[in-house]
Write a structure and sequence with these properties.
45% helix; 16% strand; 7 strands; alpha/beta
């Protein structure tokens, strides 16, 4: 009778110490989940967990993919089975494609794609055994249409969508749903970094956004609550734009 509640569920959120990851964790906690925040900076994780209240944290760099299974085992032994995984950790690079080095390109792919896949593989094994679970990826508008100066970021986020669809077809028969949110331009440290010193770009974004404003982090958080809850029990392999209409704007 409470389809949006997540009471008692352990939710792992990568990049959970700030920005969209923190907002997602905060909203999941408000719906009753127990968030476990993963990230590289312990000070940020500690502050975020304190802000949320009912949250734990663990320092983990998702690019260390060989540690993914151990991280999942540690969380499971201390907190219980993981019901929700939110792959949100990421880095950003604003640079012309012809000036982007192989190392920079590989860094974004390793963080967004390889890190998310390794942690998903580790979490999904238990979810399949229990025939229950929800895996969520934070995609981007850059996965839906061309955005200049972010070729490496766009490639990594577009790869997310192929991974979501493939995983959904493999895991959903076992009761594990896999979905993605594609945030529009949400007021966050990453957005401010991307738009820093480029007011013309900000104007272009707002001009093609029907709602004529940037989003708030909790707009992504509440969308995550929906996709991870029983309210979305027949939703898998979906990509939900949360963008003020930008992806359909002109």
């Amino acid at each position: 009778m409470k389809p949006f509640r997540l009471d008692g569920q352990v939710a792992v959120i990568t990049g959970g110490g700030s920005g969209l990851g923190l907002a997602i964790a905060r909203c999941l906690a408000a719906a009753g989940a127990r968030p476990i925040l993963l990230g590289r900076r312990e000070d940020a994780l500690r502050r975020a967990a304190h802000e949320i209240g009912n949250a734990g944290y663990l320092v983990h760099d998702v690019t260390n993919t060989e540690q993914s299974a151990a991280v999942v085992e540690r969380i499971t032994s201390q907190q219980g089975p993981i019901s929700i995984l939110v792959n949100n950790a990421g880095n950003h690079l604003k640079r012309p494609a012809l000036e982007t080095t192989d190392e920079e390109f590989a860094s974004l792919v390793q963080t967004h794609l390889c890190g998310a896949f390794a942690l998903t593989r580790a979490c999904a094994a238990g979810m399949v055994d229990r025939h229950s679970g929800s895996i969520l990826f934070t995609a981007s508008m850059a996965a839906l249409f061309g955005v200049p100066l972010v070729a490496a970021y766009s490639a990594a986020k577009a790869a997310y969508l192929g991974l979501v669809r493939a995983l959904a077809t493999e895991l959903s028969p076992h009761g594990v749903r896999v979905n993605a949110i594609a945030p529009g331009w949400i007021d966050s440290p990453m957005m401010r970094k991307a738009l820093n010193g480029d007011p013309a770009r900000s104007e272009r974004i707002l001009a093609r956004t029907p709602m004529r404003r940037f989003g708030e982090p909790d707009d992504i958080g509440w969308a995550a609550v929906y996709l991870c809850s029983e309210a979305a029990r027949f939703v898998t392999g979906a990509v939900l734009p949360v963008d003020g209409g930008m992806s359909i704007g002109f």
